[in-house]
Amino acid sequence: MDIKNLLQEDIGLFDLTTIGLEIGEKKGLMSFSTKDECVISGIKYVKQILEYLSIEHSVFVKDGEKVEAKTLLIQCKANADVLHKAWKISQNLLEYLSGISTYTNTFITKAKNINPHIEIATTRKNFPNTKELMTYAVVCGGGTIHRLGLYDSILVFGNHLEFLKDPNELKTKFQALKNKFLEKRVAVEVDDLTQANFFASLGADILQCEKMSFDELRECVKLKEKFPYMKISATGGINIENIEQYAKTGVDFIVTSSPYHAKPADIKVKMEAL
């Protein structure tokens, strides 16, 4: 994460208010604390900001830690002008990232209460230029990453299949794909049981079941009796409200982007003169 650019976006050339009030050289204490119970994320980045600005600070919690309301997270000392530079960007990071990690943690807890072996993985459907931050928050909440981008995993979509209309060519290309990347699992997004059967027979390692009914998902899970090496995931419209129903189908993991839209946590910032 480029801390300099992150700060520059907010600081700009100077702080008009602090300069105008002539308070920049006054010493101050700034503290960050939670208003509600949450799973913390963003401490890592806030520490980088404070270090970059040479702000003396103490950190009392770790990323991924579940804390109670009114928990003191960070306390720091510096001149007022420097404290104001660190204030809002630090608060924003803690609120947005802790919101994601808290949502993810709740999501996982609900799913594992139904199926202790299920995993939750998030997609690459994050807001551009926020991938590092959002995926870090998911991991802090106990989730995993489905795929970071085109470069780290193989996932055959319907848009790929548009270029392979001939079934014989598709079979040949699919086998070539598996042979070319022997260390990678090959996942295929399927829309129905017919597609699921077809790609299972071709040797797909993972069937990603897109927006299927619960009954159809259960039928896809039954394919593992014939193809025990295969994993089944569910994706499309899965959120904290319906996760328990999906977990009951017996799928191995859930693919979702819903944590990226989580409500930010409420982090209180208190500043006082020394």
Q: Which architecture of the largest domain would the CATH scheme give at its second level?
A: Alpha-Beta Barrel
Task: Describe the global form.
Answer: elongated
Spans of at least 5 consecutive residues whose pLDDT stays below 50 are none
Average pLDDT for all residues: 95
Helix content: 40-55%
Descriptive keywords:
seven-stranded parallel β-sheet, Aldehyde Oxidoreductase, domain 3, four-stranded antiparallel β-sheet, single chain, 274 residues, 41% helix, 2 domains, TIM Barrel, alpha/beta, 10 helices
Tell me about this structure.
With 274 residues, the chain is an alpha/beta fold. It folds into two domains: 111 residues, Aldehyde Oxidoreductase, domain 3; 155 residues, TIM Barrel (Alpha-Beta Barrel). It is built from ten helices and 13 strands. It has a seven-stranded parallel β-sheet with strand order 7-6-12-11-10-9-8. The protein has a four-stranded antiparallel β-sheet with strand order 3-5-1-13, with helices on one face. Strands 2-4 form a two-stranded antiparallel ribbon. The longest helix is centred in the middle third of the chain and has 35 residues. The two termini are 32 Å apart. The mean pLDDT is 95.
